[in-house]
């Protein structure tokens, strides 16, 4: 089996199925046509034109926009047209989190097709017989991808959190890693992907980190989101990625990036170029 299949499965997107969502003249997301057709009900929130949907010019401020969208989502929730709210807010932006034009509940990120951000930590241990990687097995009752393998630490990036602050928080909540250890994590770049989902569109950028842990460290979960931890030789992790679909899909990308950077997938590998370029696909932002 091929490593590339994971990149391909995370980048299945048909722009023809979507209409652009515009704020301040810039595209910040995209709606499925079926959902977009129903937005005419909220004429005080959206301006619908051929080929695009914009926020009403009456919604000028960050808080006005955020409140209007939150009200809409909660109306959909009461009508069973939106499954749940997470009460965790994500930035809505045409570029980066520092230039957010409003915020939206994480549960609606794909529905609005916004760019989202997360952090994934490759936690590893150097042993006399080689490199080992810590993995977490997601709780069986998690709403998404229950029971699948994950990075030891991984999570979304709420609009109110800094990169450093969120990383420390996630490290402690998911693996019991104290702040002084979390702060030794090395930022090693990003991976990204864009994929159509049943809810809409997911355009995700993951900040990746390498964190070498002490040989005597044992993780423990403090938030109930992990059922089990595994410390595996990197060769076994590599085999899991190549031969199974046991990892949460986007976690495969983070592991593949680690394998390339640490020399386990070399330029001689027949998939090397496809992997190296496919981990950071160029996103066709403009639908108009």
How would you summarize this macromolecular structure in one to three sentences?
This protein has 288 residues and is α+β, with helices and mostly antiparallel strands.
Describe this structure in words.
The chain is α+β, with helices and mostly antiparallel strands and 288 residues long. The protein has two domains: 4-12 and 116-278, Nucleoside Triphosphate Pyrophosphohydrolase (Alpha-Beta Complex); 15-115, Transcription Regulator spoIIAA (2-Layer Sandwich). Helix content is 28%, strand content 31%. It is built from nine helices and 13 strands. The protein has helices at 4-9, 33-38, 62-78, 109-112, 163-175, 179-182, 234-243, 249-261, 272-278, and strands spanning 18-23, 26-32, 46-49, 52-55, 89-92, 102-105, 115-127, 130-138, 149-151, 153-156, 186-196, 201-212, 226-233. β11 and β12 (201-212) form a beta hairpin. The longest helix is centred in the first third of the chain and has 17 residues, at 62-78. The protein is globular and about 65 Å long. It starts with a helix and ends in a 10-residue tail after the last helix. The model has no long low-confidence stretch (mean pLDDT 95).
Q: What descriptive keywords fit this protein?
A:
seven-stranded mixed β-sheet, globular, Nucleoside Triphosphate Pyrophosphohydrolase, 288 residues, single chain, 13 strands, four-stranded mixed β-sheet, 9 helices, 28% helix, alpha+beta, 31% strand, 2 domains, Transcription Regulator spoIIAA
């Amino acid at each position: 089996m091929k490593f590339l299949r994971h990149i391909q499965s995370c980048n299945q997107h048909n722009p023809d199925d979507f209409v652009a969502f515009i704020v301040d003249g810039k595209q910040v997301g995209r709606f499925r046509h079926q959902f977009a057709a129903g937005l005419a009900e909220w004429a005080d929130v959206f301006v619908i034109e051929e080929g695009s949907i914009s926020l009403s010019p009456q919604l000028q401020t960050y808080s006005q926009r955020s409140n209007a969208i939150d009200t809409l989502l909660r109306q959909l929730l009461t009508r069973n047209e939106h499954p749940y709210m997470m009460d965790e807010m994500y930035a809505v932006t045409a570029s980066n989190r520092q230039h957010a034009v409003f915020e939206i509940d994480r549960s609606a990120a794909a529905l609005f097709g916004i760019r989202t951000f997360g952090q994934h930590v490759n936690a590893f241990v150097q042993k006399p017989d080689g490199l080992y990687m810590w993995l977490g097995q997601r709780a069986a009752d998690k709403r998404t991808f229950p029971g699948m393998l994950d990075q030891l630490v991984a999570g979304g990036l709420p609009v109110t959190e800094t990169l450093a602050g969120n990383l420390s928080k996630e490290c402690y909540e998911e693996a019991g890693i104290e702040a002084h250890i979390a702060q030794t994590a090395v930022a090693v770049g990003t991976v990204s992907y864009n994929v159509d989902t049943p809810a809409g569109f997911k355009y995700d950028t993951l900040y990746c980190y390498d964190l070498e842990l002490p040989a005597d460290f044992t993780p423990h979960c403090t938030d109930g989101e992990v059922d089990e931890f595994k410390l595996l030789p990197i060769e076994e992790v590599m085999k899991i990625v190549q031969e199974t679909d046991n990892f949460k899909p986007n976690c495969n990308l983070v592991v593949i990036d680690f394998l390339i950077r640490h020399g386990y997938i070399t330029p001689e590998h027949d998939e090397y170029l496809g992997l190296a370029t496919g981990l950071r696909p160029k996103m066709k932002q403009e639908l108009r």
